[in-house]
Amino acid sequence: MSPLWLLLRKDGRALRNLGRTLRRESRFKLGFVALFACGLLAGLFALFLDGFRFLDSIGGSGFMITRRLFALFYLALSVMLALSSIVTAYATMYRSRETGFLLTGPVPTETLVTYKFLESALLSSWAFFFIIAPFASAYAWHESLGVPFALWTLLFSVPFLTLCSGVGVLVSLVLVRWAPRGRVLPLVLALAAGLAVWAAAGGGRAPDPGEAPTFVLSRIVPGLQAASHPLLPSWWAAEGVMACTGGQTGRGLMLWLVLVSNMFMLLLLVQGLGRRLFYAGYQRMAGGGGRRRRRSVLLRRTERMLRGLNGAVRGMVIKDVRTFLRDPMQWSQAAIFFGLLALYFANIRSFYYDRLPDTWRNLVAFLNVFSVAAVQCSLASRFIFPQLSLEGHAFWVLGLSPTPVRRILMTKFALSLAGMLAVSVGLMLISTAMLQVAAPVRAAAVALAVAISCAVCGLSTGLGAVFLDLRTANPMAVVSGFGGTLNLVLSLAFMLAVILPTGLLFHVSALGRIAPDALQRGLAAASVWVAGLTAAAVALPLWLGRRALVQRDY
Questions:
Q1: CA torsion sign, 312 to 313 to 315 to 316?
Q2: Cβ atoms 87, 187 nearer than 8 A
Q3: What pTM value is reported for the model?
Q4: I need a surface site. Which of 60, 181, 340, 455 has the fewest CB within 10 A?
């Protein structure tokens, strides 16, 4: 029996054990996750279906755009899958404890690389189906297509996502082996920005006079020219699905075989490069600590700015900053999510959103607030909530130190809030400036960003102290417990409770359904509501967290 098959059987047993573990989880957690997943799928389905109906309402150009949307959709997913695979492959291949254990066993290097490639492909692409399923369902509902359309979509999606994940694994292998130490992920982000600019510019393909409809439509829908490039896997997948659905089974089968053959060719390339590069790159990563490095410029500037603080507070802040910077899995995820949002906000005028009527510009502005807030809730639950629990058994040092517990908790809260405010307020200023919305809308968007940042940091820090777990060093185990689920639920509920009333007021005003005086009174009431809710979301969890820490035995 081959080592690869044994490793896959091990993962199968681990999944079965995970299923048994889920049966012991609280029904509240499982019910909330299921409800949220179903609500997300239903919301995306309704959004895509409404988009297709809107394209129908604009006539012939809408019909031509609809026929090419699949290629654009697959192109966007391919870029996201490749970026996700780069980070996931770096974590599973070089940062996993299992890798060091397998290297000491009778497992060939190419087998280990293939196994980690399949693992990273699974981890980075599971969300792909949460996006493609409602999109394909909405398209099938709109075009009155049957079950075969779903089967063709699934058949083409498997080699497509494997191919995109393989590209990410190859980039990780090359960067870890030859990129300067400490600059791997910055190079990844620079590469991502370059790909985005290349795609926005048309994919490096000159317009063909024989493709007049595509060239004209590319001015209406940015990126359509790049998505129509016949050498891209996204075009093969989209055209193959459309050909099989339209009865051109031979053409669709040819495109599927093109995808499959390229997938196996990429797998051979991953195995070949992995056999030559992986072990050297792993040794390079493992031996990186032996080289003396200068203290980073960011740390030196941070220490200068904190000179006026109390010594204990300054020490805790510097320790947390160093811990964050030394863990690429933390700051890389934050940089990628917020970086993609910043890239989108900076290119809003490329989509001509600033030329839309006030009603649509206001709607886009508050949708941008919602997107930033959703990322904040996710990252706060992942990184801020478990920060006290990750102190581990060394937490007794803080508990027995002369520094009051309240100061420790407030230091954690203030540090996380400073980072959240810097990112969220900056993104909102970019978004509203690019949309050229009115001053009241801009002030409301920035105020909502500040309120959500305060509430999310207060909830995550306070509830993290209430549900403190010092027995595990795995942050995912801390987050997946009852406290982490409750924190995510409350953060999302707060986000909706403050965004919806404010956005609805400006939307109704732009439609001319309320008078300016009524708008002023509504905004005053909304301001009181947001301020009161924010104060409660910050003060109450921090008070509960402080009381829980004081009552602990050290």
A1: positive
A2: no
A3: 0.67
A4: 60
